[in-house]
Amino acid sequence: MLPYGRQSITEDDITAVTEVLRGDWLTTGPAVERFEADIASVAGLSGRAVSVTSGTAALHVAYAAAGVGPGDEVVTTPLTFLATATCASVLGATIRFADVSPDTGNLDPDAAAAVVTDRTKVVSGVDYAGHPIDAVGLGRVAHEVGAILLEDAAHSVGGSLDGTPVGSLADVTTFSFFPTKNLTTAEGGAVVSRDPEILERARTFKGIGMVREPERLRRPDEGAWWYEMPELGLNYRLPDVLAALGSNQLRRLSSFVARRQDITDRYNAAFAGIEELQRPAHRAGAVPAWHLYPLRIRDGRRRELFDHLRDNGIGVQVNYIPVYWQPYFEDLGYRRGLCPMAEEYYSQEISLPLFPDLTDSDVDRVIDLVRGFVGA
To answer: Which is a Pfam family this sequence falls into (predicted)?
Structure first.
């Protein structure tokens, strides 16, 4: 079965990991600090990112660092993985879903503006498939009500908008380094921000809420062993073993992004002019870091095409089921029909294989099966 996504691991990656295994620090060591500096640099920021154990952990940490809690509202898209919404729910926030733009599938600023209130704490946009959000439009919506803009960039590390790297577009940005993503640490994620206070709170939260710095202690004279926990936190520390893999992968990030664009271009050329098919949008000024190739079939036969490709050894996927369709949100009173554009997008979308080691012949095999299905 040809997978829809897959990690790209080289002997250099393996060597980077084994060097850590032979060293003194398996966690909380220098490889973590190096990786955090590397991620901050890719995001166009100085200093260090806050590395964590997954993209979900990154969202949880970012919402906590933003002060999200009971009584707050978070506005986000339903066309995303569950964690964009659930990590705010876990902290006690109410989720307000807003519809997506029909071309990119990203959170639509006008739709977000229609649901923000004076209780909105965060507006969370998702770089769906790797295409950057409308950061200017969404930032304006968020800032007008005193909220912050969070960019869930799980799909888009290495991308940019109007020359600004993903990671510097929003008030706070989260990344994911799952194996199918644009670079991997096996499992892992990161939080970046231009706001040092958000970063400090994020670092404390992911470290179980513990602090040791004398200036942050209530009783600084107890001894060198002393630590305190001023607020609750969780252990979301990324170990050095995985951080070393991430730093080594970052050396090839530009080639990963370029190869993903090459494959996207090949798909786009093959599907051009076919009435039943809609290719992913690419807005002016955006340099996507394509994580998915979200093809849309508009004749109502998405399930048939999905089964046809799976039956022929192509491991396609659907991204995503609208979040508020999940039983958890249904039980809270959310109903289908809330975001018609997102639901239409979902009903048509099918993610074709896309990863750097995918060969042109494999891409052409997928193309032939899709074109044959629609009779092109």
So the answer is: DegT_DnrJ_EryC1
pTM for this one? Answer: 0.97
Domain edges within the chain: 11-250, 253-374
133: which residues sit within 8 A by CB, 6+ positions away? Answer: 106, 107, 125, 126, 127, 151, 169, 170
Q: What percent of the chain has pLDDT over 70?
A: 100
Sheet bearing 277-278, strands edge to edge: 277-278, 293-297, 349-352
Alpha-carbon distance of 186 to 291, in angstroms, equals: 16
Eight-class DSSP state of 237: P
For the cut 90, the answer to whether the pLDDT of residue 294 exceeds it is yes
Beginning with the edge strand found earlier in the chain, give each strand of the sheet holding 160-161 in spatial order. Answer: 164-165, 160-161, 286-287
Q: How far apart are CA 56 and CA 64, in angstroms?
A: 12
C-alpha 137 chain-centroid distance: 19
Predicted local distance difference test score (pLDDT) of residue 376: 85
User: How many Å is the Cα radius of gyration of the chain?
Assistant: 21
Q: Domain 253-374 is of which CATH architecture?
A: Alpha-Beta Complex (3.90)
The pLDDT tens digits of the residues spanning 160-215 come to: 999 999 999 999 999 999 999 999 999 999 999 999 999 999 999 999 999 999 99
Residue type, position 46, single letter: S
* Widest Cα–Cα separation across the chain: 77
Q: What's the token pair of residue 304?
A: 């048939």
Q: Mean pLDDT score of the chain, rounded to an integer? A: 97
Domain 11-250: CATH architecture, name and number where available: 3-Layer(aba) Sandwich (3.40)
